[in-house]
Amino acid sequence: MSEVHAVRRGLLRDRCAAAGSAAALVSRPANVRYLAGGAPPGAVLLLGPGEDVLLCPRAPSGESGHGRPDEALRVDVLPVPDGDPVVAAAGLAAASGADSLAVEEHDLTVARHRAMGKAAPRLLLVDLGFTVEQQRIVKDEEEIGCLRIAAEITDQALGELLESILVGRTERHLALELERRLVDHGADGPAFATSVATGPNSGQGRHRPTDRRVEEGDFLSVRLGASYHGYRCEIGRTFVIGTAPADWQIELYDLVFAAQRGGREALAPGAAYREVDRAARHPLESAGYGEGLQPWTGHGVGLEIEEDPQLAPTAMGKLDACVPVTVEPGVHLPGRGGVRIDDTLVVRPEADGGPELLTMTTKELLAL
């Protein structure tokens, strides 16, 4: 991967040069990892004007969750443990002869930005914007391979849970067990806080598990994902506990399933973000559930669980091939519960078989 990271840094360096800046400072953790291969928490990456330098508050440990820095990078560990790497980077850029430095203003606090200005008063700080985030949207096959393994781990963990006894157990306990199973199967850890929602809590997009116990006849909705070598996936499924589902549960499930299928089938290179959103949203709005829907029906995934692009009604842009995204419509009926179905897929052209589904757990409405 050393050559891959060097190429990524080269692309960023070329874009900065075209904008008139000979040096760039990358501080957002996911962007640092993307360009450096790995870094301890708090590290920043300085590109040019001389050599590229990874400035770290502490020496890299080599932990799998943090990755390993590209061997071609110079690694500087700050002599003072509580020093700020961005301030040190500003001083280093100025000492190397840079007259301007592109920084990620969206990641820096005002206090840190001011501290950089004081450390290098003659250095012009300009905004790098979301250049690295845009560069990260299209994934190479090695990145997609990591996502594929993350999805396999996630499917394994969820599949094992579905084979256990669920009635009487709390949402909180089930969420903790799922996260343990992710790690047992090789994940760095959970990609995000696992959500388990039962009965009237089911179907909510960001439900935090409680001490409510699983009961017969409940909808049980689960949302989880593994992180593998930093790459994160997402799956969401809804089941019925104990008995055959009621008519209203079948009807609601079939509706959300149709919406999710519509979104999946709309994924193609050149498809507008808003059109994919509409394909998943329209069936739910037509059935009268538009008011309570979340603001998007999908998003990109990678080194962060929510990346560009956003599949939303007002989103601008079109999909490219090799962009991994989620499709995750859901309906929640207050006091009754609801349904969520989430998948992670990779956009592929029709000639390559269309969208590649990474999360394989069945979407059949199972009674557990």
UniProtKB/TrEMBL annotation:
- The UniProt regions of compositional bias labelled Polar residues, in chain numbering, are 195-204
Q: Which UniProt keywords apply?
A: Aminopeptidase, Hydrolase, Protease
Q: Which residues form the Creatinase N-terminal domain?
A: 8-138
Any idea which GO molecular function terms this record carries?
A: aminopeptidase activity
Per the record's keyword annotation, is Transferase included, yes or no? no
Domain Peptidase M24: start-end pairs: 146-348
Q: Where is this region: Disordered?
A: 192-211
Database matches in InterPro entries: Creatin/AminoP/Spt16_N (IPR029149), Creatinase/aminopeptidase-like (IPR036005), Creatinase_N (IPR000587), Pept_M24 (IPR000994), Peptidase_M24B (IPR050659)
Q: What is this protein called?
A: Aminopeptidase P family protein
Q: Which organism is it from?
A: Streptomyces cavourensis
